Amino acid sequence: MTMSTANPIDNPARSPATPASTAPFTAPFREFSFDLPQPLPGGELRCTACSTRVRIPEPTPDGAARAQLRARARELLASRSAVLMAHYYVDADVQDLAIETQGFVGDSLELARYGQEHPARNLVVCGVRFMGETAKILSPDKEVWMPDPHADCSLDMGCPPETFSRFCDAHPNRTVVVYANTSAAVKARADWVVTSSCAVHVVRHLADQGHKILWAPDCHLGSYVQRQTGADMLVWGGSCIVHREFDAASVRSLLQRREGARLLAHPESPADVLEQADMVGSTTAILRAPATLDAALYVVATDGGLLHRLRQAYPGKEFVGAPTLGVHGGRCPWMSANGLASLVRVLESRASAIEVDPGLAERARIPIERMLAFTRPAP
Ligand code: 13P
Ligand code: SF4
Q1: pLDDT tens sequence across 269-304
Q2: Where does the sequence pass through the membrane (predicted)?
């Protein structure tokens, strides 16, 4: 079965025709909490909840230094036979460089497919670790480098493989669907991997066949998928530290002050934000939405890195980040570890190529390939 990802997913939360679901929806764990990362000496941040260290983003160099870094990165990409793949959330210079060098900027599903299909010998993935791991699983013969191979994700961190495996063992009658934002070990335990661009379609397909779902790790995306599909879902309690901070009351008051503004939201955002949205979808779906939604101003509930591409794509329109109440201010600290200087460093050193245990990779590849086949555009 195939599906098209060409159009943004409309938000039926605004449609009176959407039936209310009566299916069970249970979140077995409380949301994990991550405290404000504290600066450490030596240019790192520490997340006090999990002790993970994150490099402080390097300040963007100006003028000549920036041009030099770009030129050096271009040169190294060519000499290392590498293609640059960037997620929409990373530094604007890195996104622009990916396009200028005939690489790619996209959402997590598109990046997975692109890396697998591209003929380059080596891949440079600018994003977070699960994206590099997925690229390596799908292309075991390519070297995969990342500017920061330790760039984490709170969803991945909040879903430890051993605990997750016990959770699956306790519910053997459920089909295990995990979000791409997980480790290779968690994927290896899953029947399906999904991203935000196909989660609703996959779960609806499974529910239509009578499957009960065990979902992990994002509780907000899980709850959104459940509302859209009416599926019977048992949901893990993880969350994204960036999206969970978007604040419904501040969003409402901004939309009231700026009459005619439209809200575009990523489904990792809380339900009270999503219910105000004119469109809910993946980063690529958000990028496409202004082509069909007629407005002068868009409020965007996802990482601020996407604003760069939105402003490039629609120069006559205005885009602002949705207000947040939290400490991360709408920017993912791990995505921010990808800058021009760290890109040049990894290309020069070719250090710390991404490795995935071959046994795990073999098992994790099955549910990832299942997702790629399900979403492959019809010829
Ligand atoms: P997309 O799949 O929409 O690119 O989202 C990935 C992500 O990490 C969202 O926070
Ligand atoms: Fe993970 Fe959230 Fe960062 Fe996306 S924005 S990589 S979900 S922490």
Answers
A1: 999 999 999 999 999 999 999 999 989 999 999 999
A2: none
Which ligand 2 atom sits closest to the C-alpha of 303? 5
The structural domain count of the chain equals: 2
Output the CA 114–ligand 2 centroid distance in Å: 20
d(CA 300, CA 282): 12
Q: How far apart are CA 98 and CA 102, in angstroms?
A: 6
In angstroms, what is the C-alpha Rg of the chain? Answer: 20
β-partners of residue 46 are 38, 53
211 part of a folded domain:
yes
Q: Environment class of residue 250 by beta-carbon count within 10 Å: exposed (0-12), middle (13-18) or buried (19+)? A: middle
Q: What is the pTM of this model?
A: 0.88
Residue 114 sits in the same domain as residue 232: yes
Q: Measured in angstroms, how far is the CA atom of residue 327 from the centroid of ligand 2?
A: 14
Which among 88, 105, 156, 181 is the best mutation to test ligand 1's pocket, defined by most ligand atoms within 8 Å of the CB? Answer: 181
Would you say 299 and 259 are in contact if contact means Cβ atoms under 8 Å apart? no
Owning domain of residue 174: 60-240+332-379
Same domain for 146 and 205? yes
